[in-house]
Amino acid sequence: MDKVYLTWWQTDRAMFALADALRSYNPDIIVGIARGGLIPAVRLSHILGDIELKVIDVKFYKDVDERMEKPKIMIPLHGSLKGKRVVIVDDVSDTGKTLEVVIEEVKKLGASEIKIACLAVKPWTKVMPDFYVFRTDKWIVFPWEEFPVVVRE
To answer: Quick one: average pLDDT of 86-94?
Structure first.
């Protein structure tokens, strides 16, 4: 599978672009999807003025091209979202199945409005984010996913 490697600079520019778009929505709460959506969610929270951040952990991928049958919530959201404008943040909307599971959870907790923000979207996704920066059919390697550099003394 073809891969695209993003730098920290490219990713940060993408997060600022998402933040600019999200200002018009003015979310009350950001829900970050672990693991890939956590760094973008935290960054967006800071850029947008320390908006409240909640985390949900959903496991779907076993490996680059190997998925489980259905996404599974490993750590659920806690607390009420009643009457809140929520933005769900992930790194990429690939199949869209993870986002579907999270949207249902956010609805159950009473959110008044839900929007989706992702850095990237795949052309075959079932869930088109309301806010995204780019489309690709390649496997994306974000800077936080690269193997660490070994420093020898």
So the answer is: 97
CB atoms within 10 A of CB 58: 22
- What is the per-residue pLDDT across 7-42, written as a single tens digit (0 to 9) for each? 999 999 999 999 999 999 999 999 999 989 999 999
Q: How far apart are CA 114 and CA 137, in angstroms?
A: 26
In degrees and rounded to multiples of 5, residue 73 shows phi and psi of: -75, 120
The three state secondary structure string of the chain is CCEEECCHHHHHHHHHHHHHHHCCCCCCEEEEEECCCHHHHHHHHHHCCCCEEEEEEEEEEEECCEEEEEEEEEECCCCCCCCCEEEEEEEEECCCHHHHHHHHHHHHCCCCEEEEEEEEECCCCCCCCCEEEEECCCEEECHHHCCCCCCCC
What are 65-85's pLDDT values in tens digits? 656 678 889 999 998 999 999
At residue 151, what are phi and psi to the nearest 5 degrees?
-100, 125
